[in-house]
């Protein structure tokens, strides 16, 4: 059975979205005072071709496991999650690993489940300069962004599926919001495959660094980072896994 539209691309959510200072600019504080020039390469365009739907936001709802469901364990090795964060004039992108989770199927349709994301696995794929790449990824993992030492996981837990719309609780940095986004979910005898393309507003999960909606745009100037984080997710849960 198919539901059009699902690649958890949440904030974490979550994972799951974000960007740090441009390689050619002077950082605003001592922690990022060194100016670095980095070569940049783009992730294959096919990953980002097509619409990225903005997830609608609501207060978290109950995500109870449905009775009588068949459970399919998610296979991290065949599941992928891509992220993209941007500034007004540039972007950074990369991947983050699905750690595990499960899907619950009732009468051939997705009825529940959760996806666990390993926040320690953030990778940048567009910066080829090894030193700057390390600084960028380190900054994303710092308290300025996702504080992965304190919050090592993000979780997307399915609340309901109606037509091509998936509603789920997305938890990042111990903050949970309910998100609804279009998804494609295919349930067969071989298992469950889910894909989604959506974006979130990172500030709703306490990721406020250089946000123009939190801080003065006049003060931030070219340090401003967009609030939107895009995700493209493909999650596989084969039968018998």
Architecture blueprint of SSEs:
Blueprint: E1 2-3, H1 45-48, E2 53-54, E3 56-58, E4 70-73, E5 80-87, E6 90-106, E7 109-124, H2 130-140, E8 153-162, E9 165-172, E10 175-188, E11 191-201, H3 217-220, E12 228-238
Parallel strand pairs: 2-11
Antiparallel strand pairs: 1-10, 3-10, 4-6, 5-6, 5-12, 6-7, 7-8, 8-9, 9-10, 10-11, 11-12
What descriptive keywords fit this protein?
disordered N terminus, single chain, mainly beta
Folded structure, characterized:
The relative contact order is 0.29. The chain has an eight-stranded antiparallel beta barrel. The protein has a single domain (2-238), classed as Lipocalin. It is mainly beta and 241 residues long. The chain has helices at residues 45-48, 130-140, 217-220, and strands at 2-3, 53-54, 56-58, 70-73, 80-87, 90-106, 109-124, 153-162, 165-172, 175-188, 191-201, 228-238. The longest helix has 11 residues, at 130-140.
């Amino acid at each position: 059975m198919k539901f059009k539209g699902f690649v958890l691309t949440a904030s974490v959510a979550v994972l799951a979205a974000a960007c740090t200072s441009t390689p050619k600019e002077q950082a605003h504080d001592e922690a990022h005072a060194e100016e670095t020039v980095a070569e940049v390469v783009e992730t294959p365009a096919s990953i980002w071709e097509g619409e990225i739907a903005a997830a609608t936001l609501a207060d978290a709802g109950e995500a109870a496991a449905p009775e009588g469901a068949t459970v399919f364990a998610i296979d991290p090795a065949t599941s992928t999650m891509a992220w993209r964060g941007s500034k007004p004039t540039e972007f950074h992108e990369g991947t983050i690993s699905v750690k595990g989770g499960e899907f619950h199927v009732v009468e051939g349709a997705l009825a529940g489940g959760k996806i666990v994301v390993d926040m320690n696995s953030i990778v940048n794929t567009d910066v080829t300069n090894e030193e700057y790449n390390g600084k960028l990824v380190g900054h994303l993992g710092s308290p300025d962004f996702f504080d992965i030492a304190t919050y090592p996981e993000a979780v997307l837990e399915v609340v309901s599926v109606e037509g091509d719309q998936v509603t789920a609780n997305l938890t990042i940095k111990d903050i949970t919001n309910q998100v609804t986004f279009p998804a494609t979910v295919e349930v067969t005898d071989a298992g469950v495959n889910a894909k989604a393309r959506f974006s979130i507003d990172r500030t709703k999960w306490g990721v406020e660094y250089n946000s123009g909606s939190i801080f003065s745009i006049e003060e931030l100037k070219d340090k401003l980072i967009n609030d939107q984080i895009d995700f493209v997710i493909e999650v596989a849960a084969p039968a018998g896994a």
